[in-house]
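Researcher: Here's the sequence for the chain we discussed earlier.
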Amino acid sequence: MRHLIFYIATLLILPLAGSAQAQGNNLPTSDSTQVNAVMSQYFTALGSGDVGSLKTLLGGKLKAKRAALLNNPEYAGYLATTYTNASFRILGIHSIAPNTVSVDALISFGQDETIRKRYTLKRGTGSKAGAAGGNTTTAPYQIISEAVSTN
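Model: Thanks. This is the structure I predict for it:
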């Protein structure tokens, strides 16, 4: 039962804290650096429960899907408790369309529990999020989707 709850929680939120090291990357260095920075900020925000940063780093349908959690006052504590000791490693960053990249990451929760995730990031257009988004700034890339990866 504990593993089922863990798996469901992992699917509901975007896991981790750690440092990014990209491998298998087909992007220009400047884009790769920006993507690594966004993913590092994202994982750090998860581990510290920084929902304000998460609101800035998420975009599109993923941000809309997570809105209720991000606005729940108890969510920050849940994230911090759950992800403080998690670690991650970026396995690869790949361009999949103009201004869109995929990031494969391995997330570890101790020695026995790991999960691979694929994140899709889209380059920001420079527009600012309005009042509906609750933020006035955006990251150079925003995380617009995540999925558990099987390979």
